[in-house]
Design a protein that fits this description.
The protein is mainly beta and 143 residues long. The protein has one domain (12-141). It contains one helix and seven strands, in the order H-E-E-E-E-E-E-E. It has one helix spanning 39-46; strands spanning 56-64, 67-74, 80-82, 99-101, 108-113, 128-135, 138-141. Strands 4-5-6-7 form a four-stranded antiparallel beta sheet, with no helix packed on it. Strands 1-2-3 form a three-stranded antiparallel beta sheet.
């Protein structure tokens, strides 16, 4: 499970275009919605170093039978969201390395993986790289 480790698919110069200060206050965990039964996972995740947009940590956990989930936790607001834009744990057939590339002091997130549009039969997938920018707690596809 990739828990926020940086990959090298992206140009690091782009990260400096989206600067942000790193939050250093008390950390909050609010397990609501899809995360209401995940208090322990979120508490453990909240102890990790900030890895994205000055106030987020990225991590994940297994969800059974080879499945895994990647989540983004805002330690300032306590809100969490799944990173389900693409499968960043995919076995890429086109030479790309699946993963998530972030910087603690940047609002840019670069994801490389497979867009899942149907059943996953376990075979290697054609992967793509997409960039997102954090805006008011949402990831917006960067153009």
């Amino acid at each position: 499970m990739d828990d926020g480790a940086q990959t090298s698919n992206s140009n690091s110069d782009n990260f400096s275009k989206y600067p942000v200060e790193i939050y250093s206050g008390a950390r909050i965990v609010t397990p609501i919605g899809d995360f209401k039964n995940m208090r322990t996972q979120l508490l453990n995740l909240s102890k990790n170093a900030i890895t994205f947009a000055g106030q987020y940590v990225i991590g994940g956990w297994g969800c059974g039978a080879g499945c895994s989930s990647t989540a983004l936790l805002n330690v300032q607001t306590g809100k969490a969201q799944y990173l389900d834009q693409m499968n960043t744990n995919a076995d890429c057939s086109n030479g790309l390395k699946a993963g998530i590339d972030t910087r603690a002091n940047s609002r840019l997130m670069v994801m490389t993986g497979a867009i899942m549009t149907g059943p996953d039969d376990g075979s290697p997938k054609e992967c793509i790289t997409q960039s997102y920018v954090e805006q008011n707690g949402k990831l917006i596809l960067a153009m």
